Amino acid sequence: MEVPCVRVPRAEGEATRRELAEADLIADDREITVENGWLYIPVVDPDRVAPGYDLVDRDAPERETQTTPADLLGFDPSYERLGDVVLLDEDDPERADRIARAIVESDLPVETVLNKASKVKGETRVRDWELLAGEGTETVHREYGFEYALDLADVYFSPRLATERHRVTEQVGEGERVFDMFAGVGPFAIPAAARGAEAVGADVNERAIEYLRENAERNGVTDRVTAIHGDVREVVTGASDGRRSSDDGEVTTDYEGWADRIVMNLPHSADEFLATAVSLAGEECVFHYYDIQHEDDPFGPGERAIRGAASEAGYEVEVETRHVVRSYAPHELNVCLDVRLTRPA
Question: Were both Cys, which of 13, 115, 138, 255 would link to 39 (CB 3.0–4.6 Å)?
Answer without folding.
Answer: 13
